[in-house]
Each structure stands twice: as structure tokens, then as C-alpha cells.
Amino acid sequence: MRITCPLCGERDRREFYYYGDAVYADRPAADAAPEAWDDYLHLRDNPAGETRDLWYHEMGCAAWIEVTRNTVTHEILATRLVAGREGKKAAAKGRGKKA
Amino acid sequence: MPSLIEKSACDGLLPVSAGGVTLSEPAPERITSVAPFAGKEAAAGKALKALGLGWPGPGTSIGGEGRLCLWTGRGQAFLIGAEPEGLAGIAALTDQSDAWARMRLEGGGAKAVLARLVPLDLGAGAFPVGRAARSGLGHMAMILHRSGAQSFEIMVFRSMAASAVHELHQAMTALAARAAL
Amino acid sequence: MRIEGRGLVDRSAPVGFRFDGKDYTGFQGDTLASALLASGVRVFGRSFKYHRPRGVMTAGSEEPNALVTVGRGAGQVPNVRATLQEIHAGLEARGQNCWPSLGFDVMEVNDLFSNYLSAGFYYKTFMWPRKFWEAVYEPAIRRAAGLGALSRQSNDEHYEKAFAFCDLLVVGSGPAGLMAAREAARGGAEVILAEEDHRMGGRLLAETHEVGGQSGAGWAAATVAELASMPNVRLMPRTSVIGAYDNGTYGALERVGLHVATPAAALPRECFWRIVAKRAVLASGAHERQIAFSNNDRPGVMTAGAVRAYLNRWGVAAGQNVTILTNNDDGYRTARDLIAAGLHVAGVIDARDDAPAAGDLPVRTGVRVIDTGGRMSLREVVVADRDGKVSRIVTDCLAVSGGWNPALHLTCHMNGRPAWREDIAAFVPKPGMVPGLTAAGAANGTFSTRACLAEGAAAAAEALESLGRGAAPADLPEAEDGAVRIRAYWEVPGGKHRAWLDFANDVTTKDVRLAAQENFASVEHMKRYTTQGMAPDQGKNSNVAALAVLADATGRGIPETGTTTFRPPYVPVSIAAMGAGGQGKGFAPQRFTTSHKAASERGAPMIEAGLWYRPSYFPRPGEATWRDACDREVLMVRDRVGICDVSTLGKIDIQGPDAGRFLDLVYTNTFSTLKPGRVRYGLMLREDGLVLDDGTTACWGENHYLMTTTTAAAGLVMRHLEFVHQAHCPDWDLRMISVTEAWAQFAVAGPLARELLNSVLETPIDGEDFPFLSCGTVRIMGIEARLFRISFSGELGYEIAVPARYGEALYRDLVARAENLGGGAYGMEALNVLRIEKGFITHAEIHGRTTAFDIGLQGMVSAKKDCVGKAASQREGLGGPEREQLVGLRPIPMSRQIGAGAHLFNEGAEPVSANDQGYVTSVCYSPTMKTYLALAFLKDGRARHGQRVRLVDHLRGTDVVCEVMNPIFFDPEGGRARA
């Protein structure tokens, strides 16, 4: 698997550390309800298809990267730096399963 | 006053040669990490220009032998060989002179040696002279800089000097054995 | 038998080698198979289950029968295909899966019991009596199973791995591959041409076709010479491309030293390549098929294409009186080539009703092959005509052509399935199954030489265009352009004896029909039930025929029955190649401190903390065990002074206007209020509220902090800090970088610590200059150093840091001074005892499931601010009396020995998990307090000081009653560190 780091270019995926779903990057407010924190920490969609995850270029430039890829076709569709990304807070509330 | 004896990172390990390729330790130089604070990128570039260099974009370097500014990561560069004059207050500075084992790999087979350990395209087109990269040397984090058509500067953590020399030397002798077939 | 005037071997270079204890001679360029065939050897192996004598069947890497063991001792390699092994002086090989010899194998008795050993027999047998399975059946099956054997000796031969990059990877160097490589290279692309064989040319080397007016082999050699002269071409012979992976990555196995008579120690035996290619062309050719009929597995039954290859490429006659069985025109080529070489053709059996006009060839149509004779070497072929009349053909070789299967395996490596083409009775790749990979030539179901050349050129043009380069129209050389005329013919009906499909795993048509009968009707089930396709050839010789038999048995067509998929590797890959570089020192980097040499000179054994090597203890003359040294070192630190290298702890330099604010976010307690020159202990949580790490952070100056982390977690903490910054507060103005390696740092601990330091500092200090938990710059022998007053031992202690270049020198100096004061160096064992005596935690206690509450530090979670993990740490169940809380334990009586990992129970309760009250994390013998001490987690522990619990370790047989107490066993007021 090869991931294009926005700074370093296309690299072997062994240079990266995989963290998990991109929702991790949208931290709930300190006073958010417990359900919001539970959602953020524990509940995930598991699509067969397009997913967005967070990777850290550990053996490279130390940038955190949001990778959009397809878990069925293995295509990497897009990568962008986590820092300064647009639509930062967009998705947090709408995702995940409700009890 | 007595003084403490200095040891370089690769003390006792280098130089080694095989198959026309040599791995040696360059003379120690001052290395300073430079990370401009928010909004101070232009000021940092200006201060570096005053040193005869400039701020390098990702994957590049400015300068050469004796005085070099090397891109080393997100918002970060290493100033090598020169004192970080005019940068206080503009960038976060730390002394990295002792943190790295620096090695120079030279010879016609240098690229093939690195192909055993570095997952990068190091061809003249993809990685020309002056190009810099942070990647891996085997399992070790590494800063790589192409200093010449047949020479590369390799930096790994000081504590891993022996491992880096071992891996590189092994690759050198393996290639020398292939050439002897 | 060797034929004069034929073949590409170098007859001026004879090579001596040994097979099965006998000496033979071949020529440079021979494989083991060709050299042995030339010498008249017929039996090359014994089949897997029935131990039937087997001969070589093919001339390529798909060989299922001729699997031999090469070499002796540690370097011995089992299951080598004799068709791929180049001979060299001194090569030693032997047959496998036989005892005592290939010629006489005791296990052939299995063949007599074949009725009981058909597919899946082991699911129905070995069941009674139950006890016998473990003691009798399984060991016996293990001994009988497998083909070749490993030496079981440690092998330190060298293997390597390497990376390569290119615009176009061409797999295979037959006509399609050579054209693709040539055209792409001429167009300026960076090309890698990988060929499994040691010589490039593919089937051009095996056939007598002409290309562009010269011999196929000659055209191939000329093209290879042109490619070799181009700087943008890398030729990789002896390289099998074994897998197609994501994003244009291909795995390849190169045989580097397996053909060399006396390889240098540094010469790798194999190299495992990871090749990244923007585009790739699969020109891997095709494999010829066998036809199933009674006793079709005898030595001497081969593929028709292999007979031609041995004749034309190696000048070897596989037989002198050859019969051909064919369902397409290819068999006739074998007949013509044999006759042209002066050999005799006993018959050409054409399975088609409309056989072509064949001049004077002895063609027979309308007959079925119903049996063969000759156990150790084919003697005759028995045929029956339409009326059932039986006749025998005396013959020493049966060359079978059942059609050709494109070698499309790589195209299926991303879960694609091929498509069935009725006109060639074969599966072919579908475009796009692997992004960026195009099949060309026989691998694509295109079989004429001219068409292969054309497809190779077309594939190159397509690749060049996608790379943004133009392509000049290729000049295609003249070559034969014959059409395929084939009749699908998988097995001869009505045979009375077993008919083999999978030669390598001894699977017959009967087995496949049995699978269908037992309702394993899916091709995936049939495969696992019969083991067809699961041998070293991975079904290359049997897949299509087996699924045809299954289709027939289940009343379906071939496309409907479908095929199993293919996964990497395409050919067997040694684990040594895949794990190359991972032996010995190559397994992981070793990290050494600046004091390593000095510590080693003192005989200190090392322990591993992450990748770091740290001294365990420093034995002195007269000390017999590690405990002797450790006990002495502990008392030495408590009474005098000790020196310990603490450089390995992570040190992170954080600067910027928002640095303090950032520390307030990552730590539970407040750091923005910390003044320059002060140090504070901090606790860091994960976002789920559990403890991530603890450590001290110093405020070095205005907006400048130095954070320490635990040794093994340094990288993890750095990653966490970068994540918090980049994801949650990217606009905050701060920068961080590791300075772990820049500084050599040493703990100076004990009542005489300050006295020692003052003997090296240029300006002496007193208790006020550097109060407890302070830091600052000092000068030592002309250099600027960093001094921290912190203590992990609980004694008066400092940590002094110098640039790493001075580390070794300073360490030696400090240890000498300490020894002069009656102290000395101390290691990890003593460090651990000292901190346990003080109740200081490490990652043994903050192991990932503990909260701030559990370790008694809930007061450190500031109520006035948010921090990472705060919200989740307040969840129900993460605090309260039900939690296992940190306590100290002391055995009763004090002479009893205890160990970590034990569990805790109430006295009188049965020590089972339902009654579990907690567990022990750290234990030491304390020479200071003359007793074992433990740190443990106990339910409601803080409310139970003074009570007794039972410490039980079922594994080690420990059962000791302990007193629960404050974990700060020694100097609970902490006065000694503040002296």
C-alpha cells in the first residue's frame, strides 16, 4: 500500500502509523454530553467502501494525514494534512450509532 | 582545567569500504533545528538568507558543503555548519549537533547500497543532487540528503550508529559479492 | 540421451554434480532436470500420498513431480524444482519423500491401500480409540506427511531485500515481454524486465520458430543485447515476480547465489524485491495441460511442450520412441521436431475427429488411451478404438498436449476472477483486474508468435501513452501466426484405473467425483476436501482439468462452476528471503547509550528497554549472584552516592507562546503556572480517561519547556503530542522536537550527591541554589551543562546532562568520583528496588488499564481546566471502592518470598478468579528494609491499610499472606530527597 504524504510525496505505508477513523480528529467540546464522548471514543461505522482515516507519517515528516480510501478496491482517493483541514467540525455529531 | 574528551557518534566504526563504495563520518558540524513560529516563516527565511541560505521547501536543501539548510519535517529545517544568528524569537531552536550519527556514502554503487535499505526511488531523476527526505534506513528513522551524483549524506539517531553502520556495511559487501560473480 | 547439434547449452563447459549419491556430468546452461534426463535418469521423485515413482513432467517452474532436496547441512533446501535448479560444480541433490531410496521406497505400500486413502480419508478415520490420536496417529501422520525436510540447523547464509522503482515492469521475456520491454525502453521509459529463467527468451528458446528471419533464440539474444545496452533498462534474470499488491507494488524473488559453486559468505542466496511500477505488463506465458487417463502419472509421461524444450533448448531426447497424445495442433510440432532430430515417433494420438493432414506421421484418431505400463519407466501405452479393440504401443515417452492455460495468476491477486474462453478452452484475464497491469501474449490467451509480438508492442504503446510519452510504431518482425484449433478434452472416459489430476498432491478424478458425491460441490470446497491445487505447484497443472471434472459431475458448465482464486506467492518463496535482514543484529536496531562501553567494561549484563540496552547491575569481585550486586548498589545509593545513566528517557523540547497552554491540555495538572527554573511532576491521560504516561516537565525559560517521558513510550508520547496539536489546536503557536539523543544524562543520587557534584561543577551549589524540583544551566570543565534536581530514588538526587559527545567521558569521571566516596555505578535492578521502596510507579503500574484514581493521583486532575481524557475519566465505574487501587504489600513473616503477577484474595476465600481482589505489579527484595516489598492493585485498597490479604501465584506455587500498607514504604515524608 502506498500513501501520498502531502509534504513528502508517495511513500510505502510502512512509514506511517495507522490510528483509526478520521472522526478522532473532531474532539467533542469539554462539556459535551457523555453520549457524544462515547460516540467519539467507541462507536464507528465500518463501511465496505469509502472510509476516511488518520495516519501519522512517523518515519517521515511527522505530519498527521487524513486518508480517504476504498476498503474494497484499495484505491487511495485523497490525502490531506489534518492540521488546517477544512470542515474540521462538520461531521462529529452526525456519525455513529445511537443507543 | 581538565577537559572532557569528545567522542563522535560513529567513533571506532568508520570508515568502511567495499565494492568501490565508502562509508565515512564527515567532520562534526554545528546542527541547529529551526522551526519558525506562527506567522514568522518569512522572517525566518530572511534571517537564513542573511546567512547565505534560505528556507527550504519540503524535500529540498539550500547551500552545500560547509553551510547547508536541510528540510527535515513539517515546519522544520536543520541549519548545518553555521551559527543560528538572527533566528532567536523567530523560530524554536534546539542544538541537534550531538543527536545524530552522520555518515557519507560515496561511490558508483551508493544508490544500489541504499536500495537495500531505503524504500525511496533514488534515481537521478526522482532524487537529484540537493534533494532531502525523511524516510527509513531499514527500521531506523533517517534523514537523507543527496550531496553529489554519487554521494549521499545519511543521518540516524546517535544511539543507532552501530546498527546503521552494520546494515550499510552488510549491503555494501553483499553488492561487492554480486559484482564479483 | 543427448542429441548432437542441438540445444543452447555450452558443450565446452562440462559440469560435474551428484544426484542421489551418484555422480553425473552436464553442461553449463543445463538444469538438474535436463542434465539428469540426458543421463537417462527416469525417476526423480516419489508422489506425496501413494509414493509412486515419478519422472519430470515439465521444463518450468510449474513442475509438480521432480521436487528434490539440494545441498546438505544447514544450507539444505527442500522441494527444489529440478527444472529450475541450474547445475554447478559440486552441486549435490537427492530425491525426497522416499525411504530408503528413490529406487526402492518402503512407503510405496501406500499405493496398495489407495482405496482407503482417497480424498478426505482422514476425516473418516483415526477416530477410535480416542486416546490413540495424540499418542499414535498424529505422530505417525506427522512423520509420513510432507515432501522435503528442513535441516533443523540454524542457517546463517545471507539473504537480502531490496527496493526498485520503474515506469514499466515487464514480467516475462518471451516474444510478448521482449517486445514490450524493447518498445517501452526505446520510448524512453524506465523499464525493468524480470524473467524467472536464468536466460531470457521464454518459449523462443524451446521452439524452432523463426522470428524476423533468424532463429527465435537468436532474435531473443539480439533483443536482450539491445536492452542491456540501454541505461534506462534493468534486466533481472532469475527473478520470479511472485505477487501483485496495491498501488503498483510487486513482490519478486531473485535467485542470486543458488547457482554458484562456491558462493562468498557475503553473497546473498536470494533477494526479495519490492518493485513499485507505474505500469506493468504480464507476459508470463502459459502452462501446458495434461489429460487424465488411467495411470497417466508414470515416469516418461510429460507435456509435449516440455519434450520440445528439452530437445531444442538443451539437446536432450526425453525418449527415443515417443508417442504423442494431443487435443490440438501443438502435439504435431513435437512430432516434427523429434523426427527432424532423428528420433522415432511411435504414434500421434489425436483426440479430435478432424485431425489435420500430417504427411507421414503415424496419426491415430478415434482411439482412447486406457492405460499405461512401466512402473519405474514408461514401457507402453494401451489404446482402445471405437469398437473396444485394444492395442499396445511400445513407447518410452508420452508427450501430452491438453491445451494451454495462460499463466494469469498475478491478475487475480486482487480478488479478480478470470473469464472463460471457449475457443481456446482456457481461462483468460479480464482487463483491469489489477490496476495498471496489462496481460500480453500467451498470458492473455494469445498463442501465435506474431500475435504475441504484436500484443507486447501494443502493451508498451499503451504504457508509454499513460506515462505521457509518445511511441513510435513498432516494426514487428515476421513470425508464424497459426490459429488455435482445440477440442476440450479433460479426461479419457471409461478408464478402469486411477487417473491423476493433481500430480503433486496425488489427487485423481475419482477424488473429485467423490467430493461432488459428498456434496462438496463448490469448487472452493472441492479444493479443500481433495487438496487439489494446494501443492507446491498450486494447481498450475491441475486446476482447469479438476474443475472440468467437477463441472461434469455436478451437471454444470465450466464458467458456471467457476475457479478458485489465486493469491501470492506465485511460486514458493523461502521464509529466509521474506525475512531477509531480520536475523541477528538485523532484527531490530540496537540503541546504545554513551556509557555503554564503560558499563560493558565493568562486566554489567544488559537488559533491553524498548530498543535500548541498559546495564542491569555492576558485579564486583566476590559477588556471586545478581542479588549480591543489586543489594549492595541499593545500600550504596541510600548511604553514599550512585551514578546511573538515564539518557534513555524521552526528552521533548517544547517552545512557543502557546507552549504552556498546550501542556495544560495534555497534562491533568497545570503547567502554564510553572516558572522558569522549576520542575513539576505531571500525569498524562489518554482520551478515554486512562493513564498514558507520567513524568517531569521542566520550565527551562519563558515559553520553553523540557518534557520527559518513560523510555519505552517516548515515541508514543511524541505521536500523541503531535496528534493533539495538529488535530485539536493547529492554530496554537508552539513547536516541538525530540532532544533525547542530543543529551547524555546521568542521575547522581545519595546523601553525598551534592558533594560529588560540587567536585565537578565550575561553580559549587548548595541546597538553596537548586532546591528540590528545580533546574538550570551549569558549567562542567568548560562546557555548558543542564542540571535538574529531581529524584527517582528518593534520595538527595540530581540529573546532570551534557551534549552527548561528552557523555562517555563524564560518566567515567562521575563513576570514579563516586567510587572514591564509597559509592559507584548502579544499574536497572537497583533503580527498580529504590523506586519500589519509595512507591514510585512505572509502566508496570500504569499499564494502560489504570486511571488517575487507581494510582491515588485523582487530586492531580485539575478541576479548573479541560485536559485530554478529563471527560472520559469521569465516567461511572472509573472511580470508587470497586476499583483496584494502588497499595503496598509486605509478606508475613517478612522472610517470605513473593513475585509479581500474583493475584490477591481475602484470607479464607478460595483462590479462584471469582474471588479475585487484585494483582501484584512490581516486586523487589528491599535490602533497606530487609523484606520483600510489592506494589499491587487491590479492590478498595486505600481503605484497607493494615488488613491482610492472601497473595497466590498458581503458576509458581506461591501462597503468602501479606499486610496491606501505604506504598511509600521508605521515608514516607520524603525528607531525604529534600535535604
Polypeptide structure, described:
The complex is a heterotrimer of chains A (99), B (181) and C (979). The longest helix of chain A has 9 residues, at 34-42. In chain A, the strands form 2 sheets. A 4-stranded antiparallel beta sheet of chain A has the order 3-4-5-6, with no helix packed on it. The model of chain A is unreliable at 89-99 (pLDDT under 50). Chain A is mainly β and 99 residues long. Chain A has 1 helix and 6 strands, in the order E-E-E-H-E-E-E. Chain B has 181 residues and is an alpha+beta fold. Chain B is 19% helix and 35% strand. Chain B has helices at 41-50, 110-115, 161-179, and strands at 16-18, 21-24, 31-36, 61-64, 67-73, 76-80, 91-95, 100-106, 132-137, 140-148, 151-157. In chain B, strands 1-2-8-11-10-9 form a 6-stranded antiparallel beta sheet. In chain B, strands 4-5-6-3-7 form a 5-stranded antiparallel beta sheet, covered by helices on one side. The termini of chain B are far apart. Chain C is 21% helix and 27% strand. In chain C, the strands form 13 sheets. In chain C, strands 8, 9, 12, 13, 14, 15 and 28 form a 7-stranded mixed beta sheet that branches. In chain C, strands 40-41-42-39-33-43 form a 6-stranded mixed beta sheet. The chains are: A mainly beta (99), B alpha+beta (181), C alpha+beta (979). The A-B interface holds A 7-9, 11-12, 14-15, 58-63 and B 58-59, 73-74, 119-120, 133-136, 141-142.
Secondary-structure topology with pairs:
The complex is a heterotrimer of chains A (99), B (181) and C (979).
Chain A lengths: L1 E4 L3 E4 L4 E5 L12 H9 L7 E7 L7 E7 L5 E6 L18
Antiparallel strand pairs in A: 1-2, 3-4, 4-5, 5-6
Chain B lengths: L15 E3 L2 E4 L6 E6 L4 H10 L10 E4 L2 E7 L2 E5 L10 E5 L4 E7 L3 H6 L16 E6 L2 E9 L2 E7 L3 H19 L2
Antiparallel strand pairs in B: 1-2, 2-8, 3-6, 3-7, 4-5, 5-6, 8-11, 9-10, 10-11
Chain C lengths: L9 E10 L2 E7 L3 H7 L6 E2 L6 E2 L12 E4 L6 E5 L9 E5 L13 H4 L8 H4 L7 H13 L15 E12 L3 H12 L4 E4 L15 E2 L2 E2 H13 L4 E4 L2 E7 L3 E7 L14 E13 L3 E3 L12 E3 H9 L8 E6 L3 H11 L3 E7 L12 E3 L2 E6 L6 E5 L5 E5 L2 E5 L2 E3 L12 E3 L4 E3 L8 E3 L9 H18 L33 E3 L4 E2 H9 L5 H8 L12 H11 L4 H4 L13 H4 L17 H6 L4 E4 L2 E4 L10 H14 L2 E4 L4 E6 L3 H8 L12 E7 L5 E11 L2 E6 L4 H15 L6 E4 L4 E7 L3 H6 L15 E7 L2 E7 L7 E7 L3 H14 L3 E2 L2 H10 L32 H4 L10 E9 L10 E3 L12 E9 L4 E9 L8 E6 L4 E8 L14
Parallel strand pairs in C: 1-7, 8-9, 8-15, 9-12, 15-28, 17-24, 18-19, 18-24, 19-20, 33-43
Antiparallel strand pairs in C: 1-2, 3-4, 5-6, 5-7, 10-11, 13-14, 14-15, 16-25, 21-22, 22-23, 26-27, 29-30, 31-32, 33-39, 34-37, 34-38, 35-36, 36-37, 39-42, 40-41, 41-42, 44-47, 44-49, 45-46, 45-48, 46-47, 48-49
Helix pairs in contact in C: 5-6, 5-9, 7-8, 10-11, 10-12, 16-21
